[in-house]
Amino acid sequence: MSVTPLRFTNSSSFKALSFLLLLCLQFTYSQNANDSIFISKVDQILKLKPDNYVALDSVLWSYQKDSLKMFSLKDKSKQENYALGEGYASNALGIINRDISNYETAIDFHKQAESLAKSVDNIELQVISLNMIGVVYRRMDVIKPALDYHTKALNLAESTKDRTKNLKRSIAVSQNSMGNIYLALKQWDLAISQFDKSLAIELEEDNKLGLAINYHNIGYAEEAKGNLEKALTNYRRSLGYNNIIDSDLGRVICDNSIGKVYIKQEKYEEARPLIEEALEKALKIGDKFYIASSYINLGWLEKELGLLNGAKEHLSLGMETATNFNLRSSIVLANQHLSDLYTMQGDHKLAMHHYKLATEMDNTITNERNLQYANDVIIEYQNESKNREIKALADENEIVRSKLEKNKRIFLFAMLGLILIATLIIVFNRNEKLQKEKQILTLEQDMLRNQMNPHFIFNSLNSIKLYIINNEKENAVYYLNKFAKLIRKILVATTEKDISLEEELETMQLYMNIENIRFSNAIDFNVVIDENIQTATIKVPSLILQPFLENALWHGLSSKAEDKRIALHVSKPDQEYISISITDNGIGRQESERINQAKLLKRKSVGIDLTKARLANFSKDYAGDYKLNIEDLFDGNGKACGTKVVVIIPIQQHTLKTA
What we know:
two-stranded antiparallel ribbon, 5-stranded mixed β-sheet, alpha+beta, Heat Shock Protein 90, 25 helices
């Protein structure tokens, strides 16, 4: 078998191939040269074994994204028993794995780095490692351990007297991350306060990456508060810094965020190229967190444009990515948009399914226990900071005491005096707090006693009196008995924080019977209780449903001529909640408000606000939180045909209190 030699048909082909071969040779030479330089640097480092983190970082920072080189550094450092080098490489490998959403692997590497840092007592490496663990947990939306590690890093960094540039940077990272945790808990103003602290350090150090991150996070908080123009301003500042440092990941984040604001402003044509470009870059980078976000944002945009098939496809891709990598915030967003999409398609069963999934996942992130835990940790951190200040003062006084032995007794009495004053202040503040709590409870009781309007009692008695005047004795006795029973129940309810659902429904039935007199018994009030509900064993706040029934009567039905109906439905969507819906076929909230504005004597109700406060207070003893949704109902012609109020009340009490 003969081999035909390669021939060139023309000189241009030969030149092109020669050029390609030259490029390959140059690349291979360049790669080999780069590898040789790295090996030489590592050999020098292992020979000198510097104990200064900054010195190590200044040599190796340009290789941090190269996993092969970092594995090589880790192995060689371990062989030479050089813990600082091994820890540095472990953190770099952790960041590489975090950026491709291998979160468990990333945590393992960072914990290895922390352990190595402890073994050689290197504060800088230890603080950086703790912060990196916190960042990974925060990306996973696992709030408590994220907050614990960032707080630990912050305490350790601030307890160091001589703070290096890296320690200052670590303090800024901790504060930024704590702000991100407040974002997850939807505490926007608290989050901004943390970002401002971090931003001040980054401005002082002129750290452009830190500035990009903080401006973006402030924009996110402003967007959540509804300040869209402020949000855009901060997102664009962040994008500017990301362009300066040439960060593709930063551009992905900013393009997504600016695109989201444009969607909210209904600037869909401006949003689309930004989100599509962000998705393309995210796929190249391989960061699953931002791939999921980009898919979800694109699906959201297509849903708003009415492109429902494309929207469903991209939202499902976002959901799949988020689920595979346990990205809980993204799971919530994907389910919310899918619920809206199926509602638009008329598939209410699937819409409700995704709504429940979103709600359940959101509760695991932003329930009150997490918020309380976050607040407790922040307070603990603040106390630790104060303790460090006191300790620093004590150390200074110890030096003075050693030099000025004659003033020993005076110093001792002064310290005892300070401790006594601090104790008295703590006791005083505690008593003042208890007094305020007592005042709040007393105020709630007073407001609850006044919840039944005196006009209602007066008008009810007038209606019964009219039966007597018309010689309708049976009706008079019948309604007088019901009125007496209702008043008795109201008086009993004012002494109790909660009552059984059975008693609450009975009281509301009495209330509606009495109110119906003034409507000439024209209101059809219907109560439906699902079979799986034991109303006698379920506790609810006393008189919690009365404001909603009152609104249905006086705002919904009072201005309607005929066919007046109110339906109360009690259901149990799961083992942790009951759902109570009150639906009227009245004139709707918009028309009611118009009529009320036209009246000389306007009827103003504060019952709903009080009810929300009472539900929030009631929910503190339960595993979940309450939900309240008021929905305007419309007929097929878009005309208002009533109002539906849904109150979801937790029934599963805490079984284990978290610290």
